[in-house]
Amino acid sequence: MAEKLRIYGGRRLEGTVVVNGGKNAALAIIPAALLSSEPCTIENLPQVSDIAALRDILEELGASVTLAGSSMTIDPRGVHSTFVSEEHAWRLRASYYFVGALLGVFGKADVSYPGGCAIGSRPIDQHIKGFEALGAEVTVDNSMICARAEHGLHGAEIYLDMPSVGATINIMLAATRAKGNTIIVNAGKEPHIVDLANFINAMGGSVKGAGTDTIRIRGGRPMHGCTYTVIPDQIEAGTLMIAAAATAGDVLIRGALPTHMEALTAKLLEMGARVDEGVGEDSIRVRSDGNHRHVNIKTLPYPGFPTDLQQPMSALLSTARGTSIINETIYEMRHRHLDEIRRMGGQSEVRDRIAIIDGVPKLTGCAVTATDLRAGAALVVAGLMAEGVTDIYNVQFIDRGYEHLEKKLSQLGARIERLPADAD
Ligand code: EPZ
Hints:
Bound molecules: ligand EPZ
CATH superfamily of the largest domain: Enolpyruvate transferase domain
Number of domains: 2
Largest sheet: 4 strands, mixed
Structural class: alpha/beta
Low-confidence stretches: none
């Protein structure tokens, strides 16, 4: 049943909230469990629909999966297929990680083309470049990614044309079971790439240099089971930080790793918000009087400003004093949510990847539609700030990446409810 979020805006967020486990870390780690010869248990998983989609794919392949709350146990010993159907693959982008995992283990993978947020063309040429360097033959049509390595995979040195998160992860998965050593140059450095490396090493693999632009993998090592806890979600933490500032609130975000949040923290401080890092603990406190200066943002691969946070940030900037500019260098179509914020009274103009946002005194609630996951997050921030009531449709997009967001915000003082989409 289609649902919507209804937000009665203008209320300050105050109190303490706990960050979930990282969605994008979990989406890389769950397929990696296929690399093991024994069951693995992964803990601190966010209870979001993307995780359930990966469970369904694992079961389709023949693995046995037990998902209980935030813990998933995966036994890969029953896997009897290397085919991932369109029925499941289209539900998320991360389904393509099964290409690297299945190719590494079985020398074969037939994975229907992935889905994911409509924020650009999102090509996979760097993934294919990596697989071919490792000795695979890959064919892609508009529905399937088919990879074969009749004689197994071998180590290689792979230079990525750009620090692609997905390509880095997919190559790590395949290279872990390749015979020989692999070097990925110009690799992504995101926290969830480091988390995946730590998980592979916990299974007996050897991945060094994750978090730098050169990752070295010693492949072909025996892989055993393990229990692993996923890192906190950098993007959920950032979204909550932005919401706290947007409502002139005072929020302590527990579980947030300050080192992962530096780019956002710098921009919130530049705007005039107060950000204090937990002394001796993983937490961040955000306070604001609601009077914000405009700032300019350029999204970049980690540790630059995360593209996944520019959309929620654009809502905050909609009522900052002056004109802000957001340069979205990662995706070519990630400003569509500004159409919806304009309906709420925001003033902005988009020229290709550049958004120019003129701050207005206030936003006014109305009916708006989420076009993707982080666009939905942006509309939640806008609704929290706005005068009056905001109904956000397509809430299923938000549910892909935020666990019970309305409950967390309600606990902080927001008045927000989940309703059937056709409710008055
Ligand atoms: C991951 O997407 C995340 N998704 C995205 O988060 C995030 O925005 C992105 O990394 C950047 O941080 C998951 O982890 C499941 P990329 P991914 O490979 O792997 C170019 C969210 O909201 N590119 O770094 O697809 C292309 O322009 C989602 O949680 C190629 O040209 O990111 C692409 O747009 C949205 N060829 C850009 O890099 C390739 O082969 C970023 O891609 C690969 C990428």
